[in-house]
Amino acid sequence: xxxxxxxxxxxxxxxxxxxxxxxxxxxxxxxxxxxxxxxxxxxxxxxxxxxxxxxxxxxxxxxxxxxxxxxxxxxxxxxxxxxxxxxxxxxxxxxxxxxxxxxxxxxxxxxxxxxxxxxxxxxxxxxxxxxxxxxxxxxxxxxxxxxxxxxxxxxxxxxxxxxxxxxxxxxxxxxxxxxxxxxxxxxxxxxxxxxxxxxxxxxxxxxxxxxxxxxxxxxxxxxxxxxxxxxxxxxxxxxxxxxxxxxxxxxxxxxxxxxxxxxxxxxxxxxxxxxxxxxxxxxxxxxxxxxxxxxxxxxxxxxxxxxxxxxxxxxxxxxxxxxxxxxxxxxxxxxxxxxxxxxxxxxxxxxxxxxxxxxxxx
Amino acid sequence: xxxxxxxxxxxxxxxxxxxxxxxxxxxxxxxxxxxxxxxxxxxxxxxxxxxxxxxxxxxxxxxxxxxxxxxxxxxxxxxxxxxxxxxxxxxxxxxxxxxxxxxxxxxxxxxxxxxxxxxxxxxxxxxxxxxxxxxxxxxxxxxxxxxxxxxxxxxxxxxxxxxxxxxxxxxxxxxxxxxxxxxxxxxxxxxxxxxxxxxxxxxxxxxxxxxxxxxxxxxxxxxxxxxxxxxxxxxxxxxxxxxxxxxxxxxxxxxxxxxxxxxxxxxxxxxxxxxxxxxxxxxxxxxxxxxxxxxxxxxxxxxxxxxxxxxxxxxxxxxxxxxxxxxxxxxxxxxxxxxxxxxxxxxxxxxxxxxxxxxxxx
Lengths: 362, 362
Description:
Chain A is an alpha/beta fold. Chain A has helices at residues 34-42, 49-66, 72-87, 94-108, 114-144, 170-179, 196-207, 220-225, 251-260, 292-295, 336-346, 350-355, and strands spanning 7-10, 13-17, 28-31, 152-155, 185-189, 212-215, 231-234, 238-240, 245-248, 265-268, 274-275, 296-297, 300-301, 308-309, 314-317, 324-327, 330-332, 360-361. Chain A starts with 6 loop residues before the first strand and ends with a strand.
């Protein structure tokens, strides 16, 4: 399957697919400054928690490359400033902070001269990208076991290749099930206000030859009651230690509806999405975005000028509404406080044990 | 409160507010033929179950006025053809069929000459409009008792003055609560695909001085979990004998969410919305509309060209998820098979008994 590249390093430039233009146009932004990258994240030219992490890492690498000729002190100040700027782009997805921590760790090594440190930063960003690709593949393999032949999967927003540097989170599962020969179809919520489902998920799945049908967000419950949905499968922007999951606004409502209709509700996310420092989802900061995202659609006014709007970009689904969380280390089941911790501990045991088959459902 | 006129008879023309242009422009269609009226209903220039009934009644009156000079046989054929044409405009709202039945009843009187029959048709349409206005006022009075001071009401689509010839169904309740001095605010779902909430409800409430905040449909569950919603209040397009309620797509999901959050879910509709011939909501025909309503927003493409779409215009909320149904004859409570029948019997007892106070909750 030929997947589109969301973030790429080319000729000392961070090349970012401008997802705001999809599906009408395939346009790349050539980011030459940290500010370019920060704005691409803020304006959702690049979105999806893992892709944001990769873009931010390359943003730091870009700052390093541009400061590589400076004296070491100035180099460090410049890169630290870039990390600071990128940290202030979006508050909810934890992968952003996780990736920036890794980049800060490389900077903290204090390698000299600056040119060497810059190379190290670039290598770390490339490693984050590579790990994300591998992580997608692993999530796909673990998750595909949960999908039965003939199922229709309802998904929300875009948790596909466009949200990562690889094959996606939730959609990696769909792609892998499909490649195993399972017949799988997708119902894609359009996902207001920014329509990532209608614009991105429908486009991406169509390209991949997966049958996809778009619905408005408010049609999901009716589709469930008509037995048009076999499971719900979404990505995640941050997962607390108890499994509470922040994801695109609307996810929580789907979880409530799935619960009412006894339909399994799955989340797929790389382990970097889990914020073990947060005991519960109540501690996850929720970004509220501009009212104009709701008042206007692609520049067209759709509500009275100046009308009050509530526009939270995310919501939090309690762990007890989630049937399973698919990660790149295996599938966690409730209670998540235990199963996510067990998966986390597996981290230190290395690939040897994984190969020995001691991985999978916790 | 100055309310906008949705449907009006003027100079042998049915004047219909073109709600597709709101909130940007206040434009009236001058319908001079039955086909004009039928198209206004089909394209949702006029929408809302009660308003559709009034518009259809005037459509028949228009056919009568245009055929008033014809021989009696031709007059009857022409008017019967108009009724037939209007019957095929939209399948779900029962008020349409109810209003056309009343007009057919007047035609069946067989008054002669045609000019007299035409006058009778016009008088009947005017009576349907007058009754609708009175019905709105009565729903407002009954329903306002359910709304507590300081509440925020979540509503869906537009069940306001724009959906009727009077002050609305659900919003009549809000207007009456407001006029009694209760502090009441409204959270308006934008209501994709045609955005009646963002375009119409927000506009109408803003004009009336009621605090209104617009949200996307997928934000409702999160708003409930954050305790931003005290009750849900919607209109209805058809109500079965057991209380199962067809209304704008998305209503059912709201009922499921309200149930999960223990928030009261109210429906307001005139008694003409109740279809006692249907035992359950499973028998209500659900209109599916064009995929382009979802693929495009106000002419802007928002999904891949030709992508598959599921676009049901309505859903059915089971009576057991509805806390109360506010009608123009009183408030029905579960079990609805009994309470709606009791209210129906009240019909024959006349205004005297109502004045004596033997009305209200059943």
